[in-house]
Design brief:
heterodimer, A: alpha/beta, Rossmann fold, 3 domains, seven-stranded mixed sheet, four-stranded parallel sheet, globular, disordered N terminus, B: alpha/beta, five-stranded parallel sheet, nucleotide-binding (chain A), photosynthesis (chain A), iron-sulfur (chain A), ATP-binding (chain A)
């Protein structure tokens, strides 16, 4: 069940990585729908799965489920398991009815789940068939958000990768363009777009776009800046279409954001003077905001349990800008090339782990006794009951945390549980 | 999981893909448990499919035994694992484990949560009960309390109330199960003289088996409401051969007087729509009808297995029973019934909010606020007190109702101000336009004068007034709704 081994990985960082397999206490990729459907406003997400899948979305989406949301589950029932032909017919019927009821849907994602994959229901074929049928009105795409294939944020990766073939071809005569990849809250996206405009980078697109109808073009002149670390498949799909990845740290904190913007500025040949002049106000604001939180966080020891792949960039931010000491940083998957600018910045001695055997990992947390443990909601209250302060990880995916003007908020998310622990006298 | 988590010393090994562990947080967050549920998931992934998964299951079971040292093991498969055809029961048996193993067959493509909990509890009792231990037949009666689980709506406090009743009657409790029971406790379940089935949804299957095996009779009256509690006390006293009076004389019962006081007169005939699990829905209907003087205008449940009771009750109150698990259907029924109060689950709360109706929660599924810190049972006399407060609170109070009518043009009482305590965080009323407000006959049939008059009617009955008037106009074949039509309709529907 658990093959444990320390790998001496090649590369600049040479950090040893603890790789574990066993029980994993993580979300599946379906959860990505909860934020993707808010971002991409002309799309609908239809999960083909079981009642368990519907229940997960209901629990994860909380009250959103009652606001006529743009996602649903086509529940596989016993008779659907009997014959594949019927299953396809049934799916067609469900899609027809859905599109008749919700004519405003421009793009429909058929989202694969564990049950649909285990019974080998071919959703790509179904998407093709239904796409032809509804051509001209609704585009039908598919990806997998199943737990056997994807962990939490990887659902977004799979979804964005399915959009890449749909992106128009950039005209060959055009100058270089910048593509920001990864869904960001609108307010953060707008901040970045303003900064890039001030820097003089104008030909710029976002994946996902706010509407699937407005997908940006891609070609050999496209330069990719990843806003999120969990986008391995999307990145390779984009490079497959000739785009070039700009290695960069992720835009968390004053330094992370500066490094991220700098990667683009360098690629577009901007001079340092202009770059510094444009980013100085935001960078200063971020540093001022961080100063206040640093007092609370400095010297505090922190452990991350695997959840979203944001763990390594966040640990780097907390270590270099807030003075925290990462003890163990767990991640569901470690994309070394994507994190090439992050890993070397982690303090020497940080224990990096990939994958999970939850009981063993909890034993390590208990032995380490960190000041703060970042973990999922299934573990947070039980750890608190053992006297360990926790920060629940999902909030890091749902809150605006990227960029200069969110740096203070990001640090505050980690400071708040510690402050609360100090305030309470019961 | 609700059964395993309720128990002590039991561990559940669930064959399930990565991601299914989300269910843990229902217990750690909604019920705020300070411990992880005693469940080990195999969390298989795509690369494990094939022979690997069976091995994965056996390893998980072995590790769970070593780490948690449970007295017994539950083994089962999730919906996905059901499809890959590893047989957890067979696999566990082949391992010759040193503790009893309770295999579960839960057909997830046919059945749902309540059935799963009931079946799980039944299998546990059947496997673990020691058949050599039989009713002790002592002069002091001994009872089992069956049905309460983890994630149950107010189960914690209901158990406390029912225990107190039994104690007052001089009846001893053999065990409460599954909530708080260990496999060792379950082994001596046969010692009780009779069973108290608090929640038929989870406890009745096991109770019926106990009836056959140990000849333990069961009391199935669910003591929710004053009348039902008194019946329950008499029933239990009869089974135990004791005098019911000490329990009946409980002076903590304030609900009957609260309901009789003149303050409550305005509650008379309020139309109430009730939906939830069958047990709570039927109990709520009886309280609404007999103890609060409401009019039941809709009654339904989502669990088909217990629909018979709901059908019978619906017939008694002269409404069509609504048996469905489709919340859109419930929403339609509520909109059509035009109730003044909705009693339901979390789902009905959201529906009521959207329709701008007052609502109280009476049944699972519920959210975190319905696992309160304070003592708030539904059962027994204290339960009736809690129910009175909970149901009446969301209604616009009688005096406020008058004020709204008398001073409706004053700014504090204008529509935008809303009722003082009626879901303060609801979206602005423009967003919450009730579905039922769509004109029956289409287009604007209303004269400006009639429309203006309609606006003078307090908002919480305006929807009904508009609907009734339009129906009336349609039936009478009137092409236009003027003042006269409005008041003719009012006279027609006056009750």
């Amino acid at each position: 069940m658990s093959g444990v081994g320390i790998l001496e990985a090649p590369g600049a960082d040479c950090a040893p990585v603890l790789r574990e397999r066993g029980q994993r206490e993580v979300f599946c990729g379906l959860t990505g729908i909860v934020w993707l459907h808010r971002k991409v406003q002309d799309a609908f997400f239809l999960v083909v799965g079981s009642r368990t899948c519907a229940h997960l979305l209901q629990s994860a989406a909380g009250v959103m489920i009652f606001a006529e949301p743009r996602f649903a589950t086509a529940i596989i029932e016993e008779r659907d398991l009997a014959g594949m032909a019927d299953c396809h017919e049934e799916l067609d019927r469900v899609v027809d009815r859905l599109l008749a009821r919700r004519p405003e849907i421009r793009t429909l994602f058929l989202v694969g789940s564990c049950p649909s994959e285990v019974i080998k229901l071919d959703l790509s074929k179904a998407a093709e068939r239904l796409g032809t049928k509804h051509a001209g009105r609704t585009r039908i795409l598919n990806y997998s958000g199943s737990g056997i294939e994807t962990t939490f944020t990887e659902g977004e990766d799979a979804c964005l990768a399915s959009l890449v073939p749909e992106m128009p071809v950039a005209a060959s005569g055009e100058g270089p363009s910048l593509l920001l990849v990864g869904s960001l809250p609108d307010i953060v996206e707008d901040q970045f777009l303003r900064l890039f405009a001030e820097l003089g980078i104008e030909n710029i697109g976002c994946l996902p776009a706010r509407a699937v109808a407005d997908l940006p073009a891609v070609g050999t002149n496209t330069r990719i800046l990843l806003a999120q670390p969990f986008l391995g498949e999307t990145l390779s799909a984009l490079t497959g279409r000739g785009a070039v990845h700009l290695p960069a740290p992720f835009p968390f904190g004053a330094e992370g954001t500066t490094g991220w913007l700098k990667a683009a500025a360098d690629a577009f040949g901007l001079d340092d003077m202009q770059f510094n002049r444009v980013i100085a106000p935001g960078r200063e604001r971020a540093k001022r905001a961080l100063e206040r939180q640093r007092e609370r966080l400095d010297g505090k020891r922190i452990s991350f349990l695997p959840d979203s792949q944001l763990e390594i960039p966040l640990a780097r931010f907390l270590a270099t800008e807030c003075g925290m000491v990462p003890v163990e940083v767990g991640t569901p998957y470690l994309h070394r090339s994507i994190l090439a600018d992050e890993l070397p910045q982690l303090p020497r001695g940080t224990r990096i782990s990939e994958g999970q055997d939850v009981d063993k990992q909890l034993d390590r947390v208990r032995a380490d006794q960190p000041d703060l443990t970042v973990c999922g909601l299934g573990l947070a209250n039980p750890l608190e009951a053992e006297g360990l302060s926790t920060k629940w990880a999902i909030e890091l995916v749902f809150s605006p945390i990227h960029g200069f003007d969110q740096a203070g908020d990001l640090a505050e998310l980690f400071a708040r549980p510690l402050r609360r622990r100090d305030v309470l006298q019961v | 999981m609700r059964v395993a988590t309720a128990m002590e010393g039991m561990h559940y090994v669930l064959h399930a893909p990565q991601g299914d562990t989300y269910a843990d947080l229902l217990f750690t967050m909604i019920e705020r448990r300070g411990k992880r549920p005693p469940v080990t998931y195999t969390t298989f992934q795509a690369r494990d499919l094939g022979k690997d998964t069976a091995q994965l299951f056996q390893d998980a079971a072995r590790h769970a035994l070593e780490r948690f040292e449970p007295q017994a093991l539950l083994v089962g498969a999730s919906c996905t694992a059901e499809l890959i055809q590893d047989d957890p029961a067979g696999l566990a048996e082949a391992m010759r484990l040193p503790v009893p193993v309770v295999p579960l067959e839960l057909p997830s493509y046919q059945r749902k949560e309540c059935w799963g909990a009931s079946e799980t509890f039944y299998q546990i009792v059947r496997t673990l009960a020691d058949r050599d231990i039989t009713p002790r037949g002592d002069s002091v009666a001994l009872a089992n309390i069956l049905g309460p689980t983890a994630l149950g709506f107010r189960h914690r406090d209901d158990v406390r109330e029912v225990r107190a009743i039994l104690e007052t009657l001089g009846i001893e409790v053999n065990l409460v199960a599954p909530l708080g029971a260990s496999p060792a406790d379950i082994a001596r379940i046969g010692a009780a003289d009779f069973n108290v089935v608090l929640y038929p949804e989870t406890g009745d299957e096991a109770a019926r088996w106990l009836e056959r095996t140990f000849h333990q009779p069961a009391i199935r009256t669910v003591p929710i409401g004053i009348g039902a509690t008194e019946e329950f006390i008499r029933g239990v006293a009869a089974l135990a051969g004791v005098d019911p009076e000490p329990a009946l004389a409980d002076d903590q019962s304030r609900m009957p007087w609260w309901s009789r006081s003149v303050d409550s007169t305005y509650l008379t005939g309020k139309r109430v729509f009730i939906f939830g699990d069958a047990t709570h829905a039927v109990a709520a209907a009886r309280i609404a009808h007999e103890e609060l003087g409401f009019e039941v205008c809709g009654l339904g449940c989502y669990n088909r297995e217990f629909a018979r009771d709901v059908r019978a009750a619906a017939q008694q109150y002269g409404v069509d029973p609504l048996i469905t698990d489709d919340h859109l259907e419930v929403e339609e029924a509520i909109a059509a019934a035009q109730p003044e109060l909705v009693l339901g689950t979390q789902m009905e709360r959201h529906i009521a909010k959207r329709l701008g109706l007052p609502c109280a929660v009476i049944s699972s599924p519920v959210h975190v606020q319905d696992f309160p810190a304070r003592h708030s049972p539904q059962m027994g006399f204290e339960g009736a007190n809690v129910i009175f407060d909970t149901w009446v609170h969301p209604l616009v109070m009688g005096l406020e109702e008058h004020l709204l009518t008398m001073f409706r043009d004053d700014f504090e009482f204008s529509d935008d101000a809303g009722a003082s305590h009626l879901h303060a965080h609801a979206p602005k009323r423009t967003l919450a336009q009730p579905i039922a407000l769509e004109p029956v006959m289409g287009g604007s049939l209303w004269t400006d004068e009639a429309e203006a008059e309609l606006k003078k009617i307090p908002f919480f009955v305006r929807g009904k007034a508009r609907r009734n008037t339009e129906l009336f106009a349609a039936n009478e074949g009137r092409a236009q709704i003027d003042l006269e039509t409005l008041y003719d309709a009012k006279a027609h529907y006056a009750r």
